[in-house]
Design goal:
Elements (H helix, E strand, L loop, with lengths): L2 H4 L7 H15 L4 E7 L5 H14 L3 E6 H4 L13 H4 L7 E3 L29 H16 L2 E6 L6 H13 L5 E8 L16 E4 L6 H12 L5 H11 L3 H13 L6 H7 L7 H10 L3 H13 L3 E2 H8 L3 H13 L3 E5 L2 E4 L2 H10 L2 H17 L4 H9 L2 H4 L2 H16 L3 H9 L12 H14 L1 H11 L6 H17 L3 H9 L6 H18 L3 H10 L11 H17 L3 H14 L7 H12 L4 H13 L6 H18 L2 H12 L9 H17 L2 H8 L11 H16 L3 H17 L10 H11 L3 H18 L2 H14 L5 H12 L5 H17 L3 H18 L2 H13 L17 H11 L4 H8 L3 H15 L7 H5 L3 H11 L2
Parallel strand pairs: 1-5, 1-6, 2-3, 2-4, 4-5
Antiparallel strand pairs: 7-9, 8-9
Helix pairs in contact: 2-3, 8-9, 8-10, 9-10, 9-11, 10-12, 12-16, 13-14, 13-15, 13-16, 13-17, 14-15, 17-18, 18-20, 20-21, 21-22, 22-23, 22-24, 23-24, 24-25, 24-26, 26-28, 28-29, 28-30, 29-30, 30-31, 30-32, 31-32, 32-33, 32-34, 33-34, 34-35, 34-36, 36-37, 36-38, 37-38, 38-39, 38-40, 39-40, 40-41, ...
Length: about 950
């Protein structure tokens, strides 16, 4: 049987086709046969019957085909010509006839003629035309074996089908093969009950396996099948061949590739052809099955049987039976114990598309109430309320939506919170709504739709009797107005505050701090604000409000490189007196950032880790900013892996086109870290996710331009690198971020100018950075500026300048900058002919770059060592992962502040053993001493002390 090559559905049907070939052979030999091809819609019954007819013709059998679905029912009692009468005429020249569509005539007269059979007394009478037809079948088969094929026989006149089966059962001498295509139904009547087991053959085609699906797709598309698409296609279709065919055709119509990604992209909407096929399959089911599918589509994956039955308004047993029927046709699947899901999001979308909108709305409303009464989480209920506006405004629903909106804000999902709250506030009726509800809406809107948020908050400001809530509204209003450039109006709100009492003055300080930090999101507002707002740094910092104001002022002062001693003293006061329990994490992070931009990244990293350890107190939208800052501090310290981990968490799954300003900083830091590691390919891929039109005026995008310029330099495109870095420098000037320690853009701009053949410009950038960093006592900025200055100058004095740079960086904790400078110095010494000293310094840079995971720098040092005649062996084990268990114990206790003697007593070892362990720890971590140990281990002081205290005997 060659049908497998012509029918895509005849895949994994070898057993069935073998049985059919054998039946044709036996019929050709003069035997009677009955075969029922039974299965759900779309399983491939028709394809098997067609293959059977082709095989029968090839063997010389007379073939008569019809379908109950085409004729609506086989009315053998009609006075019109019975099935295939012409074909059954022994004198007919053609041996094949197909009974085609057309409305049957009136049944007319029905002569009752008994049939001579062993059970004639119990059998119902037959109509005269049917008896004549059966006699004609017998006569025709005497001259030529015959195949009678009836597809969709379950939809024909069952009395006539039963009579045909009875003929096969009583006339074993007729060379007739009766083939019935029978769709699975819940009704008990079936040919299997009317025939004897000895003569009956029942074929039940099974759904396709994964490889079978791949074969069908390959035959239809003519291309190889991706493994991801094979798995997704199998899940979406349940292995039902007709669904596989429709899915492939639907994706082709959408011009989507036959890949896992293409299927996933299409899953969010209704796929043409596939959706239509799903709906045809569904409408062929019972009304209970249709309601069950609609309930499942509304409730989503993992629906409990009792919940689904309640929404479908059927008994649990009937609901389960309906789902089994849907599972048989590939539309549903059992998820876990007593839970169900539709087969795939594409199936769910098809069902929802076919459900009338009013029915959908009603189902969502009833689902919300049903889930609420059963104690389901608010998040599971809120989506249904959004789809049923009338129910959403009921008191219980409004309370639930407000609670879920608060949760959404805490996890940073402001857009979702706005959708939830807007469903509680009818448009145009804000004045009649609860002012607290409108306040909640305005606060949520201020993060995603500032104009709407400002309007709502302004409308309720005078209606709020609670002073704390009023302060919250004022704070949000001031921030939103400042971020949108309306600093004048924000200042008016501040000026209107009563400062005659300590609480009034504290409130004003907090509002001014909010305005300062909000201005860092808008350059025009930032510039305007700096012209008219005091940046005094002499506040004592005894209250949380004073500390918030000091932190904002210190951050701005350090970024501008102004009054640095006072700014750093203010930041230290904030961090010394403030705690995560009493102060805003934004204030503490701003103070820590001031330290990071003053070349104290280790101190900043310690604060960031403290705040991240107390993650319960930090909303998710602020957590992304903290992670970005933590990654920046780690990258400045040369902790590449930590920088990559923090930035990965900050970015999450957010696409480059939708990153927030906090995430933009994480994006820039991640690019730097990837380039530090030497992974240019990954850096290119990351930069490729950011469309050019995404870049706006925020200062965080300045840092992205600097990182992208460095990438262009690594790609050997100095012209593009100079363009990006020059633009970055221009924007930094507009933002007044003139402190060379705040951003390394000038360092990479200098190297880009060197690569472009402009050492004079590189020297100008380096000289300016040296002057600023030296006066401010910023060791990292000074060391890197000296390294750039040496590279821009002549070779004669280069080794000495690089030695000075190395000496400065050795005390800074910036391990990667130190390793980079050592490699540069080794190269300079080698060029000057000082091979011995070159080997020594290159070996240190080679070891350090290996420990840090800076692969490109390590390879560069390796090549220089070979040029110097050295034979470098395997680099020494470095990094926290290389510490032994004993070394980790000693390091943790030392980081907690214990002396060597205390550590020796706690671990029952000698003091000398402790010293040896610490020496090994410093070497492996690239540290200069105990001071840097706590930050290197990445544990805040409080957490370390608490953990160590629990270990005390």
């Amino acid at each position: 049987m060659s049908a497998g090559r012509t029918h895509p559905h005849l895949v994994e049907r070898e057993r069935e086709t073998a049985v059919l070939r054998d039946l044709v052979r036996r019929t050709a030999a003069g035997r009677t046969g009955l075969v029922v091809v039974k299965g759900p819609a779309g399983i491939g019954r028709t394809a098997l019957l067609r293959a059977l007819a082709e095989e029968a013709e090839r063997r010389g059998l007379r073939v008569v085909e019809t379908a109950g679905a085409r004729e609506r029912m086989l009315r053998f009692g009609s006075p019109s010509a019975p099935l295939g009468t012409a074909a059954l005429d022994p004198a007919a020249p053609d041996g094949r006839a197909v009974a085609r569509g057309g409305r049957s005539g009136d049944r007319g007269g029905r002569a009752r003629v008994p049939v001579a059979s062993p059970d004639a007394a119990a059998a119902p009478p037959l109509h005269g035309p049917l008896l004549a037809y059966l006699q004609m079948v017998g006569s025709a088969s005497v001259t030529r074996p015959t195949l009678l094929s009836v597809d969709d026989a379950d939809r024909a006149d069952l009395a006539s089908i039963r009579a045909l089966v009875r003929l096969m059962r009583t006339r074993h001498d007729l060379p007739v093969l009766l083939a019935l295509g029978w769709r699975d139904r819940e009704e008990p009547a079936a040919p299997m009950e009317w025939a004897t087991r000895s003569m009956l053959e029942v074929l039940r085609p099974r759904p396709l396996s994964g490889p079978g699906v791949a074969t069908v797709v390959r035959r239809l598309a003519g291309t190889a099948v991706e493994a991801g698409f094979q798995a997704g296609c199998l899940a979406a279709t349940g292995g039902i061949p007709s669904l596989v065919t429709a899915l492939v055709a639907g994706l082709g119509e959408l011009r989507l590739p036959l890949t896992g990604a293409g299927l996933e992209a299409a899953g969010g909407g209704d796929i043409p052809l596939f959706g239509a096929r799903v709906r045809r399959l569904l409408h062929g089911q019972s009304p209970v099955a249709v309601r069950a599918a609609q309930a499942m589509a509304v409730l989503g994956d993992g629906t409990a049987t009792t919940t689904g039955a309640g929404l479908a308004r059927v008994e649990t047993t009937a609901f389960t039976r309906a789902l089994r029927r849907l599972e048989a046709v590939g539309l549903a699947r059992a998820s876990a114990a007593d839970t169900w899901s539709l087969a795939h999001p594409a199936v769910r979308n098809a069902v929802l598309t076919g459900t009338p909108s009013r029915t959908r709305t009603d189902l969502h409303g009833r689902a919300a109430r049903l889930l609420h009464d059963s104690g389901a989480p608010a998040g599971d209920i809120a989506g249904h309320l959004l789809a049923s506006p009338a129910v959403a405004r009921e008191p219980w629903a409004r309370a639930l939506l407000r609670e879920e909106a608060r949760t959404a804000l805490l996890r940073g999902a402001a857009e979702h919170a706005v959708r939830l709250l807007r469903s509680c506030v009818p448009p145009g009726r804000e004045d009649t709504c609860d002012p607290v509800l409108v306040t909640e809406l305005g606060i949520a809107e201020s993060r995603v739709d500032a104009e709407s948020g400002i309007g709502h908050l302004t409308s309720v400001l005078d209606r709020l009797p609670d002073p704390d809530l009023r302060l919250t509204v004022l704070s949000t209003l001031v921030g939103a107005l400042t971020r949108t450039g309306r600093t004048g109006r924000a200042a008016q709100l501040l000026a209107a505050q009563d400062t005659g009492s300590p609480s009034g003055r504290a409130r004003l300080q907090l509002l001014e701090a909010d305005m300062l930090l909000a201005a860092t999101d808008n350059r025009e507002a930032y510039t305007d604000l700096l012209e008219g707002v005091s940046l005094r740094l002499d506040l004592p910092g005894t209250t949380a409000e004073e500390r918030a104001l000091l932190a904002g002022r210190a951050f701005i002062a350090v970024s501008r490189g102004e009054r640095l001693p006072q700014a750093l003293s203010a930041a230290d006061r904030v961090l010394l007196s403030g705690t995560p329990l009493t102060d805003s994490p934004v204030s503490l992070a701003a103070a820590a950032a001031a330290l990071a931009y003053a070349d104290r990244p280790a101190d900043a990293a310690h604060v960031y880790q403290q705040l991240l350890e107390g993650a319960d107190a930090v909303p998710d939208h602020l957590r992304a900013g903290l992670l970005a800052l933590d990654g920046e501090a780690a990258q400045r310290l040369g902790r590449i892996d930590q920088a990559l981990r923090s930035t990965a968490q900050a970015l999450g799954s957010t696409p480059g086109a939708r990153v927030t300003h906090h995430q933009t900083l994480a994006l820039a830091v991640r690019l730097h870290a990837l380039l530090d590691r030497g992974d240019v390919v990954a850096a290119e891929a990351l930069a490729g996710t950011v469309p050019p039109d995404t870049i706006d005026d925020a200062w965080q995008w300045n840092e992205y331009l600097a990182a992208r310029g460095r990438l262009r330099l690594a790609q050997d495109d100095p012209v593009a690198a100079v363009a990006d870095l020059t633009e970055c420098g221009r924007r930094q000037g507009l933002w007044q971020r003139t402190n060379p320690a705040a951003s390394p853009w000038w360092y990479w701009a200098g190297h880009a100018h060197l690569a472009a053949g402009d050492p004079a410009e590189a020297g100008r950038l380096a000289t300016r950075a040296v002057d600023l960093a030296h006066s401010a006592d910023f060791p990292v900025a000074l060391g890197t500026a000296l390294e750039l200055l040496a590279s821009a100058g002549g070779e004669r004095g280069r080794p000495q300048i690089l030695e000075d740079a190395e000496s400065v960086l050795a005390q800074s904790g910036a391990a990667l900058s130190l390793a980079r400078t050592r490699v540069a110095r080794g190269r300079a010494l080698l060029r000057a002919g000082h091979v011995g000293p070159a080997r020594k310094v290159l070996r240190r840079g080679w070891d350090e770059s290996h420990a840090l995971g800076a692969h490109a720098l390590h390879d560069e040092a390796h090549g220089l060592l070979l040029s110097a005649g050295a034979r470098p062996r395997r680099a020494a084990s470095r990094g926290a992962g290389e510490l032994t268990r004993s070394e980790k114990q000693v390091a943790r206790l030392a980081a907690a502040g214990r002396t060597n003697l205390q550590i020796a007593e706690a671990l029952f070892v000698t003091r000398r053993t402790v010293e040896l362990h610490l020496t090994s720890v410093y070497r492996k971590l690239g540290l200069s001493g105990r001071k840097e140990l706590r930050s290197a281990l990445g544990r805040p002081r409080g957490a370390a002390d608490a953990a160590d205290a629990r270990r005390e005997p």
